[in-house]
Amino acid sequence: MLEKNKYKNAVWPRRVFQIVLMLGSVAFVGCFQKNEVTPGEIGASEDSDFRVVAISYPLQYLAGRIAGDLIAVDCPVPPDIENPSRWKPSREAVLAMQSADLVIANGVGADYAKWLPKVSLPETKLCRTASKGLSLSDYIAVEDVTMVHSHGPEGEHSHPTMVSRTWLDPAVAKKQAVYVAEQLTKKYPQFAAEFSANLAALIKDLDRLTNLLQPIPGQPSVSLVTATPNQKFLARAAGSGDLHLTWFSIPDVEQASLDLKSLLEGADVSEGVVLFDRELPSAEILAVIEGQGCRSLALDLIDQPPETGDFLSSLESNITALKKTLGN
């Protein structure tokens, strides 16, 4: 057994412990993706005493624009994750979220982060931007064909799911930004004037994109066919008839051709644009689409920071490409 006072006068063990603890704290912070921007644009300097976490890059951008250089807005998702909505945070990332002043999420209306309900966070810290300030007409629900089941007298069926990438419609992103500003002001009332000015500048940018999306009067309408639900907020904002396919993951090219033909004929559409996420499908599927008189377009979901520019410039690129393909 060690003597009770053997290390009574030894200072170095405590100093070693302090150094290890300090390094551990740095590791926790390192789990977060920082706003690598000039102070005053969309995030604060790293020496800020105030800390906010956003569960997605688009929400980080919106919150960062409002916070300016006053509040650091972090995102816990590493930049190399292909599908951030299905990412699972480490214990260190969860601890960092729990220690933040505010956690900005989409929320129940259009839940984006599948992992968030499993993380224990105080309700007072959660800012559910897609749950407040929006009406039912702002949401988009789609049938979840991957979850077909049977119970009761209804027989085999599936329940609708909410589309989560609300921010692809700049008008909805504006409503989310307004609510974020309200919650930031409640948390940091000393910065109310700065938040209000930053929000006004952000709203001006989002209103410009909303106007850019509007079709040119007199131009013939071209239908959009969404290959996944992810782009539906942008499709609706473009004002085009939005048809939805469910075969995008089916490898049977012949069946895909029949389904697309049936969809277009049922909607009395002779031509359209099939919208894909991130990248175009195989050459066989593209041939099917062209055979039905349609064109194909792949747009960025902006789940992660782009190599150049930011969320706003990426959304504008999406809108410009979409309008060019639609011919308006």
CATH superfamily annotation of the largest domain: Nitrogenase molybdenum iron protein domain
Question: CATH architecture of the largest domain, please?
Answer: 3-Layer(aba) Sandwich
Please identify the top-level CATH class of the largest domain: Alpha Beta
**Percentage of residues in helical conformation:** 25-40%
Structural class, by secondary structure, is alpha/beta
Measured distance between first and last alpha carbons = 83 Å
Calculate the mean pLDDT score and round it: 78
Task: Count the DSSP helices.
Answer: 9
**Can you tell me the residue ranges where pLDDT is under 50 for at least 5 consecutive residues?**
1-45, 145-159
The CATH topology of the largest domain corresponds to: Rossmann fold
Order of helices and strands: HEHEHEEEEEEHHEHEHEHEH
**Number of E strands:** 12
Largest sheet: 4 strands, parallel
Percent range for β-strand residues: 5-15%
In total, the number of domains comes to 2
Side by side, the strands of the main sheet go: 2-1-3-4
Overview of the molecule:
- This protein folds into two domains: 18-135 and 168-211, Nitrogenase molybdenum iron protein domain (Rossmann fold, 3-Layer(aba) Sandwich), CATH 3.40.50.1980; 214-326, 3-Layer(aba) Sandwich (Rossmann fold).
- It contains nine helices and twelve strands.
- It has helices spanning 12-30, 57-67, 91-98, 170-187, 192-213, 232-237, 253-266, 283-291, 311-326; strands at 51-54, 72-74, 102-105, 126-128, 141-143, 149-150, 156-157, 160-162, 223-226, 242-244, 272-277, 295-299.
- Residues 1-45 and 145-159 have low confidence and may be disordered.
